[in-house]
């Protein structure tokens, strides 16, 4: 009986979590945009109009999508990205969030996460999922005897934070799961485990 309740609960979490997460993200976006738009509405109409902020927020998002699809919009986005990656504090957050969004929504495009890997961390016998971001180059590779690769270790349930470690290639287990599947595994706290075909 207890096992049935537990399994039903986990199944419910898997069903509800994506829906609840989506609603929460949309709520945060609309609430933020509504706070920005509401003063403008009050200034124009002299009073607050219930729901108009949400409608205008939806309109702004659609407008941003339309602008982003034309030549001028793409150039503005490129300029904003160029600025983001040059701000010392903003750059790591922006880069990581963009990589995750690209991996989740832009399948087939190139991201900085090249492959999902497994390493023994923080000690032998305990495994940590990571993303291969590149090979060790320059001074780091010169000063180490082994071939070094760069691995980003994300945190759960917020994979936008984490840390970079540099590991000898011989100590890395390369997995067959896609980057998208790896991110979903991290986001779900290990609930959404990709299926593997037995050879």
Report what the structure shows:
- There is one protein chain.
- The protein has 199 residues and is an alpha+beta fold.
- It folds into two domains: 2-84, no CATH class; 115-187, no CATH class.
- The protein is built from six helices and five strands; from the N terminus they run H-H-H-H-E-E-H-E-E-E-H.
- It has helices at residues 2-45, 52-69, 71-84, 90-105, 139-142, 179-187; strands at residues 115-120, 127-135, 148-154, 162-168, 173-174.
- A five-stranded antiparallel sheet has the order 4-3-2-1-5, covered by helices on one side.
- It starts with a helix and ends in a 12-residue tail after the last helix.
In summary, what is this structure?
The chain is α+β, with helices and mostly antiparallel strands and 199 residues long.
Give descriptors for this structure.
alpha+beta, flat, 2 domains, 53% helix, 5 strands, single chain, 199 residues, 5-stranded antiparallel β-sheet
**Number of helices, counting only DSSP H or I runs of 4 residues or more:** 6
Spatial order of strands in the largest sheet:
4-3-2-1-5
Biggest sheet overview: 5 strands, antiparallel
What shape does the CA trace take?
flat
H/E element string? HHHHEEHEEEH
Helix percentage range: 40-55%
Span between N and C termini? 35 Å
Q: Helix/strand-derived class?
A: alpha+beta
**What is the alpha-carbon Rg in Å?**
22 Å
Q: What's the count of strands?
A: 5
Nearest-integer average pLDDT: 76
Low-confidence stretches: none
Tell me the β content: 15-25%
* Overall tally of domains: 2
